[in-house]
Design brief:
The complex is a heterotrimer of chains A (183), B (263) and C (361).
Chain A lengths: L1 E9 L4 H14 L3 E6 L9 E9 L11 E6 L2 H7 L3 E9 L14 E4 L2 H8 L5 H12 L5 H11 L8 H14 L1 E4 L2
Parallel strand pairs in A: 1-4, 4-5, 5-6
Antiparallel strand pairs in A: 1-3, 2-3, 6-7
Helix pairs in contact in A: 1-5, 3-4, 4-6
Chain B lengths: L6 H4 L26 H14 L6 E5 L7 H4 L3 E4 L5 H11 L4 E7 H7 L1 H9 L5 E6 L2 E2 L5 E2 L18 H4 L5 H6 L4 E8 L3 H18 L5 E7 L3 H4 L3 H15 L3 E5 L2 E2 L3
Parallel strand pairs in B: 1-2, 1-3, 3-4, 4-8, 7-8
Antiparallel strand pairs in B: 5-6, 7-9, 9-10
Helix pairs in contact in B: 2-9, 5-6
Chain C lengths: L3 E6 H11 L4 E4 L7 H9 L1 H4 L3 E4 L3 H13 L4 E5 L1 H17 L3 E7 L15 H5 L10 E3 L4 H18 L2 E7 H5 L1 E6 L8 H7 L15 E2 L6 H21 L3 E4 L6 E4 L2 H16 L4 E6 L1 E3 L3 H8 L4 E5 L6 H9 L4 E5 L9 H13 L2
Parallel strand pairs in C: 2-3, 2-4, 4-5, 5-7, 6-7, 11-12, 11-14, 14-15
Antiparallel strand pairs in C: 1-8, 6-13, 10-12
Helix pairs in contact in C: 1-2, 1-7, 4-5, 11-14, 12-13
Classes of the chains: A alpha/beta (183), B alpha/beta (263), C alpha/beta (361).
C-alpha cells in the first residue's frame, strides 16, 4: 500500500500539523512515511501545503505532481491541486470560502463542513482534526488508536490536555463527512 | 696563575644570575635583532613555568611575524588563519575550561582582518588572554601600513606618510575592547626597558590568574618596535617608539577588575 | 530495548544525532534553510544532557575557526550552514585539511550563485568534492538522501573524519533538511574524556602532560621540500580513501538498459521516475553515489559496459556529470538533466528527459 496525499490551505489552518499527525500515525503502525512542506516566504500568511506519503515500502520521491488524495481547504489550493488528483483518486474539501466547487468526474469527491462545525463546537483550533477525521472515514489508512498515539507523539506535552478535544473533533469529522460524487 | 678563574669555575649553579626558561625552545629566534617579540615570548613562557601551567596551557599563534611563535614557545600550540586566533581560543577554552589559553597576535592580525573575532570574543567574555603586539606596521610582509600606523607615519603602502583623509585613522582597538562588558582586565605595556619588562610580566601573570576566576577576557597590549619596518637602528626605533607611539598609545592599565581606570 | 522511532526533519535529525554521537562542540551561524540545527540543539540543552558545547558564533568564518581550535584538541566538533555560509568557511576548511583536523560540516544546499534563493539545490557539488578552498585537498563528501541517512551521516562522518584526520562534508539540500521522515534513534555515545583523547589522538593539543614534547597544530611549513612531502602524504591519504571508502546504492540495475545517476534529493525523485518509466516499458535503473568523494568511479565504469545510456540528474547546471564522464571513459552516452535556482524536477519531467536525451537521442 502507498498513499500519496496533498494537504493544502491557508497558513494557520493547521495544514502542516494535520500532516504531521497523519505521518506519525503511520509510524505507529510500522509504515514508512514522509512529510514534505512547501516552505519559504510563501508560507507566511499565504498558502501552505504539505505532501504526506504513507507506504508499506520504501518511499521514493517526497515531491510529487500527482496525488492519490487531495485535502483542499481554500480556493487557491482547489485551483492548483484539483487537476493533480490521479484518476480514481479522492478530493476532500471544506466548502467554506470555496467559490468554484470541484468539477472532475473521474475522481471521488467528498466535502466536510469542518470550519462551520469547529465554530459550532466552540473549538476553532481543532478544525484540522475534524478534517482529518473526515478523511480517515473515507480513507481508513490508519487505525484510530494509532492516530491517538500519533497525536501524543506530535504534540508537545504542554498541549496534551487538548488531546480529548482533538479526539472529539476527529470523531465528529467521521460523522459529518459527505460524499458528493463517486469516482 | 692561581688567582685566575677558569670558565668551568665560573659557570656553576650558585653563580648563575639568569637561566633561559625551558619553555623557550633551543631554536634561534627568527626575529630581527632589537625586535620586542623575543622578550615578549620569553616573559609569557616564564610566567607559565613559574605558575606551573606547562601541562595545561594551549597557545594560539597568529599570521604575521610571530606566525612561527610555536617554534619558540615550548607548550602545546595551534597556528591560526589570519585574524582567527580568538575563534580558535574560544573553542579550546569552552571545550576545556580548566586550561590556560592565550592568543599571541600582531596589529594587522588582531585589529584589521581579525577585528570581528577580537570584538566578539571580548564581548562574549571568553575566559582567554589575548596578548596583542602593536608595532604600527605589517612586519612580515615587508612594512606595509597597519590599522595602528600613526598619522603621517611612513610605510611601504603609505610612502608619503599616513594621510588620515585618504587612509583613515589609526585604530585604538585596546580602548575599544575595554569598553565591552566582557573584558575584565585590559592594560597597555611595553618591553623596551627592564622595568617595563617587569611590569608586563606582572600583567601577564595577573591575566593568567584571572583566567581561572571566571571573570571575563584579559587583554594585554604590548606596544613594540619594528626597526626593520621603520627603517631605523634598534636604538633609534626604541627612542622613536617612546617619542611617537607612547603619546598616541599611552602605557598603563585601562580597565581593572572590570572597571575603567579613571584619568 | 525497543528501538526508538521519531518523525523528524532532516535538520533536526542531524542535530539529535550530533548529541547522540558524543559531539563535544557545535559552532554555527544562522542561515536558511538549516537554522533548525542550532535551534534544536539550543532547545535540547545538550550541555545538560551530555556536556556538549553549543555556541552561536559571530559569523561562519568564526564558526569554522572554532572547529579548527576544537578539532586541534582532539574533540568531536561540527558545524552546519548553507551554501553562502559554506563559501565563507572555505578558508578555514582549507586550513583544517592542511593541518589534518577531523570535523563534520553540514551543507544544506540552497540555490546560488550569490545570495541566490533559499530553495533546495545541488549546485555546490564541485565546491564540495574538488576541494573548495585554496590548495590541493579533498573533503570526504557524504550525500544523504533520506532523513535517516542525515541522522546516520553524523556517526559515519566522525568515524571517517578521525580515521583519516580529515574534514567530512555532509552535502544535503533544503528538501532533505526540511522534510520529515521516520528516524530510528540509537543509544547515546559517551563523550570521550581527556584521558581517552590523549590515548586515541596523541597529536591533540591538550597540554604537555607528563613532560611530553609539545604538540603543534599547523598547516604551515615554509620549507618547500617538507611542504611537498606533506602534500604527497595528503595525496596518499586521499588515494586510500578512494580505495576503501566508496559507498553507493544500486536499484533495479540488473536488467536495466539505461541508468539514472543521482544523489540526495535527485535520487529520491529518480526512484519515482524509474517506476514511471518502467510502467512505460523503459527499463531504467538508479545508481546512487552515497560518497561523492570518493566517487564510485570503478563501479560506474563497470556498469557503463552493460547499459545503452546514462542520464545524470542533478539540481544544477551539470557538475557531477564531469565525474561520470571521467568514470565511463566514453564507453556509453552520458547526458545531464537538471533544474536550477531552487526548482526540484518532477518525476515525470525526468522520464521525459530520459526519453528525449537518451532513449531516442
Amino acid at each position: 500500500m502507498t498513499e500519496e496525499i496533498i494537504i493544502a490551505g491557508f497558513g494557520g489552518q493547521g495544514v502542516l500539523s494535520m500532516g504531521k499527525i497523519l505521518a506519525y500515525s503511520g509510524i505507529m503502525q510500522d509504515q514508512e512515511v514522509s512529510w514534505m512542506p512547501s516552505y519559504g516566504p510563501e508560507m507566511r500568511g499565504g498558502t501552505a501545503n504539505v505532501t504526506v506519503i504513507l507506504s508499506d515500502d520504501r518511499i521514493s520521491s517526497p515531491i510529487l505532481t500527482e496525488y492519490d488524495s487531495a485535502i483542499i481547504l481554500n480556493q487557491q489550493s482547489m485551483d492548483k491541486f484539483e487537476p493533480m488528483v490521479k484518476p480514481g483518486g479522492l478530493l476532500l474539501y471544506d466548502p467554506n470560502g470555496i467559490t468554484r466547487h470541484p468539477e472532475r468526474k473521474d475522481i471521488k469527491i467528498c466535502k466536510i463542513e469542518a470550519s462551520k462545525e469547529a465554530a459550532n463546537m466552540g473549538l476553532r483550533k481543532i478544525f484540522n482534526m475534524i478534517v482529518l477525521g473526515g478523511y480517515l472515514k473515507v480513507k481508513p489508512l490508519v487505525e484510530m488508536e494509532n492516530v491517538i498515539k500519533g497525536l501524543k507523539k506530535s504534540l508537545p506535552e504542554r498541549y496534551h490536555h487538548m488531546i480529548p478535544d482533538n479526539e472529539k473533533a476527529i470523531t465528529r469529522g467521521l460523522e459529518i463527512v459527505e460524499e458528493v460524487h463517486a469516482a | 696563575m692561581e688567582d685566575t678563574l677558569v670558565k668551568s669555575e665560573i659557570i656553576k649553579p650558585e653563580n648563575r644570575v639568569y637561566k633561559k626558561t625551558d619553555l623557550m625552545t633551543e631554536k634561534v629566534l627568527s626575529y630581527c635583532p632589537g625586535c620586542g617579540h623575543g622578550t615578549a615570548h620569553r616573559i609569557i613562557m616564564e610566567v607559565i613555568e613559574e605558575m606551573g601551567l606547562t601541562e595545561d596551557t594551549i597557545g594560539i599563534a597568529p599570521v604575521g611575524c610571530s606566525v612561527l611563535a610555536y617554534e619558540f614557545m615550548n607548550v602545546d600550540m595551534q597556528q591560526a588563519a589570519h585574524g582567527r586566533a580568538p575563534a580558535l581560543a574560544t573553542a579550546v577554552k569552552r571545550l576545556m575550561p580548566h586550561k590556560t589559553v592565550f592568543t599571541y597576535q600582531g596589529d594587522g592580525d588582531l585589529a584589521a582582518i581579525g577585528t570581528a573575532e577580537t570584538i566578539h570574543a571580548a564581548n562574549r567574555g571568553e575566559r582567554i588572554t589575548i596578548i596583542f603586539i602593536n608595532n604600527g606596521i605589517y612586519g612580515m610582509t615587508g612594512g606595509q601600513m597597519a590599522p595602528t600606523t600613526l598619522p603621517g607615519m611612513k610605510s611601504s603602502t603609505s610612502p608619503y606618510g599616513r594621510d588620515l583623509d585618504m587612509m583613515g585613522h589609526p585604530l585604538k582597538i585596546t580602548e575599544l575592547v575595554a569598553q565591552l562588558p566582557g573584558t575584565h582586565y585590559v592594560t597597555r605595556q611595553a618591553v623596551h626597558t627592564p622595568s617595563n619588562v617587569r611590569k608586563t610580566k606582572k600583567a601577564i601573570r595577573k591575566a593568567f590568574e584571572l583566567q581561572h576566576q571566571n571573570v571575563g577576557m584579559t587583554f594585554i597590549e604590548i606596544v613594540s618596535n619594528c626597526n626593520s619596518g621603520w627603517k631605523m637602528t634598534p636604538v633609534q626605533a626604541n627612542k622613536w617608539m617612546v617619542d611617537n607611539m607612547f603619546p598616541f598609545y599611552p602605557l598603563g592599565d585601562i580597565k581593572v577588575d572590570g572597571k575603567m581606570v579613571e584619568g | 530495548m525497543e528501538k526508538e522511532l521519531r518523525l523528524m526533519k532532516g535538520n533536526e535529525a542531524f542535530a539529535e544525532a550530533a548529541i547522540r554521537a558524543g559531539t563535544d562542540g557545535y559552532f554555527g551561524y544562522p542561515i536558511t534553510p538549516q537554522s533548525e540545527v542550532m535551534e534544536y540543539l539550543m532547545a535540547e540543552k545538550p550541555h545538560e544532557r551530555t556536556g556538549m558545547v553549543v555556541l552561536q558564533a559571530e559569523s561562519e568564518v568564526a564558526s569554522i575557526n572554532m572547529l579548527y581550535g576544537g578539532a586541534g584538541c582532539g574533540k568531536k566538533v561540527m558545524t552546519s550552514s548553507s551554501s553562502p555560509g559554506i563559501s565563507l568557511m572555505q578558508e578555514g576548511i582549507s586550513y583544517m585539511a592542511g593541518a589534518e583536523l577531523p570535523c563534520v560540516i553540514l551543507n544544506v544546499v540552497r540555490g546560488g550563485p550569490g545570495l541566490g534563493t533559499i530553495q533546495p539545490s545541488q549546485s555546490d557539488y564541485s565546491q564540495s568534492t574538488k576541494g573548495g578552498g585554496h590548495g590541493d585537498y579533498r573533503l570526504i563528501t557524504l550525500a544523504p538522501s533520506s532523513v535517516q541517512e542525515m541522522y546516520d551521516s553524523v556517526k559515519l562522518g566522525y568515524e571517517l573524519a578521525f580515521k583519516y584526520r580529515n574534514p567530512v562534508l555532509v552535502l544535503s539540500d533544503g528538501a532533505i533538511g526540511q522534510m520529515m521522515e521516520k528516524v530510528e534513534i540509537d543509544a547515546q555515545v559517551e563523550r570521550l574524556s581527556e584521558e581517552q583523547i590523549r590515548e586515541q589522538h596523541p597529536w591533540a593539543t591538550l597540554g604537555r602532560h607528563n613532560g611530553r614534547e609539545r604538540n603543534i597544530i599547523t598547516s604551515l611549513d615554509l620549507d618547500p621540500a617538507r611542504q611537498e612531502r606533506h602534500n604527497e602524504a595528503l595525496q596518499r591519504k586521499y588515494k586510500e580513501v578512494e580505495e576503501k571508502e566508496v559507498r553507493y546504492e544500486k536499484i533495479n540495475c540488473d536488467d536495466a538498459d539505461y541508468i539514472f545517476v543521482a544523489y540526495g534529493t535527485s535520487a529520491r525523485i529518480c526512484q519515482k521516475s524509474m517506476q514511471l518509466a518502467r510502467e512505460k516499458g523503459i527499463k531504467v535503473g538508479l545508481f546512487r553515489p552515497i560518497t561523492l568523494f570518493p566517487f564510485p568511479k570503478k563501479e560506474l565504469h563497470e556498469m557503463a559496459g552493460q547499459v545503452k545510456g546514462i542520464l545524470s540528474v542533478e539540481m544544477s547546471a551539470g557538475q557531477m556529470i564531469e565525474d561520470i564522464l571521467l568514470a565511463v571513459e566514453g564507453k556509453v552516452k552520458v547526458e545531464h538533466y537538471g533544474r536550477m535556482g531552487g526548482i526540484i524536477p518532477a518525476p515525470g519531467e525526468v522520464v521525459d528527459a530520459l526519453e528525449q536525451k537518451i532513449v531516442k537521442g
